[in-house]
Amino acid sequence: xxxxTVTTDPWGRVDEDGTVYVRTAEGERAVGSWQAGEPEExxxxxxxxxxxxxxxxxLLEQRVRGTDLAPAQAEASIAKLSEAVAEAHxxxxxxxxxDRLTALTDHVAKRRDELRALRDQARAHARETKERxxxxxxxxxxxxxxxxxxxxxxxxxxxxxxxxxxxxxxxEATLWKRLxxxxxxxxxxxxxxxxxxxxxxxxxxxxKERxxxxxxELASSTDWNxxxxxYRELMRQWKVAGRASREVEDELWARFKxxxxxxxxxxxxxxxxxxxxxxxxxxxxxxxxxxAERLLPVTDARAARGxxxxxxxxxxxxxxxxxxMRDRLEGxxxxxxxxxxxxxxxxxxxxxxxxxxxxxxxxxxxxKSIDQLxxxxxxxxxxxxxxxxxxxxxxxAARRSWLEEAERTLAEFS
Length: 414
Known about the structure:
Blueprint: E1 6-9, E2 12-14, E3 19-24, E4 27-33, H1 39-66, H2 71-86, H3 94-143, H4 147-163, H5 169-218, H6 224-240, H7 246-277, H8 279-293, H9 301-318, H10 323-350, H11 353-383, H12 386-411
């Protein structure tokens, strides 16, 4: 027989008609009906329903607190489970489950605020990053002339832009427009530069084609000295003309050098043949140079000049010598001629009556000045005028030094 009321569970009971109630803070609520079996079985059944709900709450707590579950998804799960608890057909401390769900809601709200702060911080950082990217792109567009590295850097900046976090739509659009404008400006500057460079290279090509044409026309010339000078001038023009494109530059240089080589090789062959025929002349001039050097040092300028004059006549008659010997032989003879000329100048100075008279006059004046200074010195010493004594002594020392030099000059005229 069933008793009138079973109240063995603190959170619920089974009424005598089999209705099962759960106790909540708001009062009792019917959660089911139990018609077969003992009331204890009904209570046990509905307690298991509670345990299932408690397990779901615990699992949700673990997911929310232990994983990076999105706040929106967590809130949806909490709301669904909270509704299930509120309408649960179970016996147990449903209020504690609601409290736990409320605490979990607060936790999710706090997590949402944290994520919002992190997102705002990330967006602020992304904005700074994109503003830096745009500023660098604009600087490259305005300033750089390193076209290859500048273009590569702009491509890298676009990749950095794509990798950065997105920011608010209006700012994103404004900054992207500036970045696109900078890239376009750089591309236009680069295109204009290379267009100008092509024009310059075309002008250089025309100039060097003219130089090459003239060089090739002279390649067979036998006017050795004049043509060599023209080739030197053409080389100077080539260097100042600038550079054409690499392919054109290489092709024109090969032609120019080929023409030069043809001329200078022909000239070298002719000079080598001619120098071989001049070897005997060089032997004669070697002997004449040795004879001329025996005139040194010059002791009789007139005799040395006479001898040298005869040597020069034989020198001219001997004819040209090989180029590699010319400077040494001509230089050696020039030294002898300079020594004879210097001796002649000295001889003329010694025999020049006007110069001797001037030298004698200088000596006489200095001697007179010294006599006067000696008289002044004697008077100053007698009068005890120390300052005048010092001035007279200094003046005498200078005049005596000048007199010695003047007397040596006069002696050269003796």
